[in-house]
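YM 10:42: Methyl-accepting chemotaxis protein sequence, as discussed on the call
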Amino acid sequence: MSGPGKERVFPWNPLSLRFGLAAKLMFISAGVTLLVCMTLMLQASSRLTRTMQNAFAVNGEALALSLASAAEQSVGGNIALLQSAIDSGQTLANVRYIYIEESDGTVVAHTFVPTFPVGIERLNPVALGELSDGKRVKVNPELEFTAYGDAIRAIDVAAPISGGALGTVHVGMDLDAITAEVASLRWALLLWAGVILFLGVLLSYFAYTLMLLRPLRHLAHVTGRIVESNDLAQVVSVTTQDELGQLAGSFSKMVEKLRQFQSSLRGSVGVLKDSASRLDADTSEQSAMINRQAAALQQTRVTIEEISQTSRMASGRAKSILEVAERADEVVRTGEDALQQTLGGLNEIQGVVQQMAQTITQLGERTAQIHDIAETVRQLGAQSNMLAINAAIEAARAGEAGRSFGVVAREIRALADQSMRETHRVTAILSEVGATVAQAVKNSENGALRLQVGLSQVAVSGDKLRELSGILTESTSGVRQIAAAVSQQSLGVDEIFTALKSLDAMMVETTPRVASTQKAASALKDLSVNVSELVSHYNA
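YM 10:58: structure's back
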């Protein structure tokens, strides 16, 4: 298939050349006649060739058999007689050569000049006893060889002498004579074909002109008058009853139908023109109204979209406030619970602090008791030291006998000194512990006072949080009602906006259709005007 914008290429047609119908018909007739003549000529040439080949073979067979009979009767006779016989046979029409060979292949007589060509006796040999079933000769229908520069084509007929025991007679009938005869016949047939072709073309020209071209030219003349002058009053004459007469009658009926159609078309064109004008006016008004409705709908859509946006913002803010209020309520409740827990914890801490104060007081008393015990131990260490000194003095007085006692005295003195030192350290530590315990007792008393003040403040804060929780509960309920109302309003605005979008889409679809209808109405109006002008051009 040819693509868009490409000219379709058709195969070359010789009849598409600028020739008249008569010339084309004559070309066709001449071609058919020439084809018939060529076919007949080929058939005649082929039949003549077969007939002459059969005749040549029969004549060659008769001559070969007669020479074989003569050779059989003159066995052992004079070879010159055989040569004379075959020379006489060659003078017959269309005989190309004759030769006689013996059973051993020796050629004893021939018509070749000056000598017998070597090797041709093997082209159509006859073996002893080869011929049977009543056959008397062996025929090679087309034997070709060259002798002394001449190309020889012949039908070789081999007739055995005494069944081949005494040799064979070969007679060659000239195939070139058949070729020449067939060529002569072809030239004669071509000459007659040319004469017949000329006469056939001439007769065809007059026959086509009288029987075919004259009615067609009349139809062409009437058609030209209708096309040029738009005159449907032309009369088509019908003079024959053949196919051309039927064509002329059909053409005459067609012209009559066109007259009737033009008469009815005039009235229909007027109605069509009026209807197209009214349709054009109605579509113009409808298009203007659709445009006004589209503009109003567009403004309404913009307003609703702004309301929808405001409603969505309000709904979002209401939801945010509701969430904040709910979180605040939850925080207040959590704080109230935490204050209750804190108050309980502080009461427990107060009890613990009091117990710690009592414990620290008892610890101070125990520390004082330990201090007294440490003082007693110190005094005992001092007395032990004095005793150790006295024991050392007595050991020194005792001399060698009191040496071991002196050692014990020294050890007791060392223990007394160490006991005194440790006692001093314990006393110092107990003094620090006593001061620390006294400070802890004081701090515990101050902490208890502050804890009591904190408990009072926590109780007041719990009361305030309970009041704030009630206020937030009321505020949350109001915010929920506002959020529900805003959500319902937003849903209603969304439904209105969806409906307006549907109307807008319908309006968008309707506007092009109305424009297309208006264009179609305008085109229909123009078409009715054109049809009216076209109908007015024809004369009935």
